[in-house]
Amino acid sequence: MRRIGAGPGVPELEPEVFDRAIVAVAITAGEDHRLVYVNEAFRALFGPRQLGAPAAEVFTEPNAARFLKMLDQVHLDRAARQVTETRTTEGTAPGAPGRRHFVYSCSPVVSRFGAGVLAVAVDTTPQVEAVEAAQLLSEQRQKALQRYEALMSAVTQIVWLMKPNGEIVELVGGFEEFTGIPWRPVIDQEWMAAVHPHDRQRLVRTWNEAADGRARFECTFRMRTATGEYRHVQSRAVPVERGGELVEWIGATADIEDQWRNRLRERLLARVTTVTTADDVPDAFAAVAAAVVPELTDACAVFMLPAAGVGGPLTAVRVATTARAGLPALPPLSNRPYLVGQAAQQVIESRRPRLITFPTGDPPDSVLSEMSRRWLREARATSLTMVPIVIDSAVVAFACAASCADSPPPGAADRALLREILYQAREPLRQAVELQRTRHTALTLQRALLTATPVVPGAELAAHYQPASKTAEVGGDWYDALLLPDGTVALTIGDIAGHDLDAATSMSQLRSMLRVIAYDQEHPGSPAESLAQLDRVVDGLRIAPLVTVVHANLAPRSDGRWHLAWSNAGHPPPLLLPAAGEPRYLLGDGPDLPLCVAPDAPRATWHHELDSGDTLLLYTDGLIEVPGTDLGQGMAALAATAQAARADGLTLAQICAQMLSGAGSRRDDAAVIGFRPIRQGPSRGALPRGRLLH
Predict the structure, then answer these.
(1) Where are the beta strands (DSSP E) in 33-155?
(2) 559-577: per-residue pLDDT in tens?
């Protein structure tokens, strides 16, 4: 196909087709370059210019010499030229809008005025001003926007005209150089084959909507380049009408890959920041996988490797998977370890990504497990990109990104961006891994100290502990049950301020000291005296900042009942489920001060008689503190739960477990310990209920 103005037989260009074009257009004619046409966009950018005068008289700006010289060159050799760096007009011409920035190109053209030059200018003022403003913000942002400015100034615009019958004329060339295929005068199957498979329907739909409404068309899509990789282009067009009839469409298509990729990079990096809000390691890896789907890959799975030092064949556990809409359902996650294939082993050992391509829906056997291969077959996958995830100089996991539904394999730029996103996620992932290790250590210490309850003749004991759902919040709550030589049972439930390894360590010290104090039969004391002694020691040694605790002694009576004596240091009150009657809390006159507040403050011991079948429950505040409600509501709900469990005939252990069933998703750990007399005896006198002893 010949270019416009390239020789005899070429149709004359009607300048009026550019009247509503969004780019500035001017046309000259003759050797002296008489200005014969400018459109509204040109006047808005450069101000009004005198038509019919030579270009040297029209463009008198000091920096117009290069433009005038380019007019001479294009008119002489009939070859198009463009200026790729940003030019500036100071807006000194009458009616000009002021200082503006632009890039332009000149192409030979034939109009009714004869042979001449078509000048097209693109206003880059917003981009340039954005760069200048960015210089006041940061060095990093400045460099990014400078690259954007350079990109915008180097953009090659393909200007085209479409007639109502669908015939396309390329006014400013570049299609063949960009795609590697000859210019197509109509949009046919070969033309559409160059569009990315996932963008074809959207491109057609967007064009049809614009054509039906004779509205402005704008669409960003991917086209395969001459190198075989895909780049994002943006195509815009406006309809040209005369007398209410559609005459043609005038449009321009530009390569915007770098701008699109910079925006995508910023968007994906922003998503990676959500990893820091993850509650545990699987959630953290899931946030990373979700950050790259669907804009960078169709599906992503993360496989976590075992801790260093684990022997035997290398295995991995799939801890996160996500896929874009429209693909088959992903296999459910499980803790089942998979043998790492040869390809993944090479990625782990080399610490380098690897792209594996294969025929559609036919992944090689050595890549992943049969379950994963089956999903890749169903998803019509075409490639798999494996990327190691390195934290503290060790490969802790690897990600597998799949191109599905006949998508072409990712290009080098996509693979580089995927690797960068996973690299940027290393610090929040490291924090998640470290928090999990801390939690595991605290849980190990916690569970080692929360020993099984002793066997008590004539009574039933049960206890349960539930760590918080948030990674670091573990270690503050504890319970203890101790059978003393005289048959008395000492029960304790407590909570130390803080939810970390330090809290777990402090808890172990307090638990041990209170055990010693309670077991000292040579100097027996009431629960209030035991807590007062513990308070003085804890305050003197500065073991913990604040401690709430209920400490109780349960002594058997000969009639089968048990005498309960307890002291409450700022803790939620014990819950009593009478064998007959409604549940109630043992409040006394209210709790005393917590430990570590006022060691010399007086403490009270309260008393109650437990009949056979009564159930005493001591618990921590994780069972009654519910976001959005007050403690009264939480206490009422807890009592109702316990009462319903007992009414269902559950054992004491099952009641404790039922009380903790709603604490699994809360942000605090929780513990409960229960006591129930199981023998009956003749009724005998007892201390009055609610009697206060000091």
Answers:
(1) 34-38, 81-89, 100-111, 114-123
(2) 889 999 999 999 999 999 9
Residues shown for the chain: 694
Spatial neighbors of 561 by CB under 8 A, at least 6 apart, are 609, 610, 611, 612, 677, 681, 684, 686
| CB-based burial label for 242 (10 Å; 0-12, 13-18, 19+) | exposed
Q: What is the pLDDT of residues 288-325, one digit of tens each?
A: 888 889 888 999 999 988 876 556 788 898 988 999 99
The first and second tokens of residue 270, run together, are 């922003």
Q: Of 438, 502, 504, which Cα lies nearest the Cα of 471?
A: 438
Rounded to the nearest 5°, which phi and psi values hold at 342?
A: -65, -40
Structure tokens at 11: 């149709």
Question: To which residue do tokens 């990676």 refer?
Answer: 272
Contact residues for 264 (Cβ-Cβ < 8 A; gap 6+): 295, 296, 417
Burial environment of residue 651 by CB neighbours within 10 A (0 to 12, 13 to 18, 19 or more): middle
Q: 588 φ, ψ to 5°?
A: 60, -135
For helices 412-424 and 426-449, angle between their N-to-C axes, nearest 10 degrees:
40
* pLDDT number for residue 1: 32
- The two beta strands, 245-255 and 383-391, are unpaired
Tokens of 403: 């191109």
- Count CB atoms within 10 A of the CB of residue 194: 17
Domains and CATH numbers, the chain: 1-123 (3.30.450.20), 156-255 (3.30.450.20), 261-437 (3.30.450.40), 450-693 (3.60.40.10)
Please name every residue paired with 462 in a beta bridge, in sequence order, or none if there are none: 674
Under DSSP, the state recorded for 690 is T
Instruction: Write out the H or E segment, with its range, that includes residue 671.
Output: strand 670-677
Phi/psi of residue 564, each to 5°?
A: -100, 125
**381 burial type by CB count under 10 A (0-12 exposed, 13-18 middle, 19+ buried):** buried
Q: Which residue has the tokens 């700022």?
A: 570
Q: Taking the alpha carbons of 480, 483, 484, 486 in that order, is the dihedral positive or negative?
A: positive
Segment 216-249, tens digit of pLDDT: 999 999 999 999 899 999 999 999 998 889 999 9
